[in-house]
Amino acid sequence: MIKNITFSVDEKIIRMAREKAARNNMSLNEVFRQWLSQYARETGLGRELDDFLKITEYKKHDKKLTREELNER
Prior knowledge:
Elements: H1 11-23, H2 28-43, H3 45-55, H4 67-71
């Protein structure tokens, strides 16, 4: 499943990045997707997150937690 995300970046940087991507016959979206995939693999982010969620027995809550519930230790 592909998710859309939004970032705030200076217009000049976006323009320069789009121009560079175009020179490589790519869209900025493709370049970013490649970079993010590589970044996640290099840091082991996906595996570490899976391990963390298993250890903490992550569960989704059906209700919104109160401030007190969120701060319980």
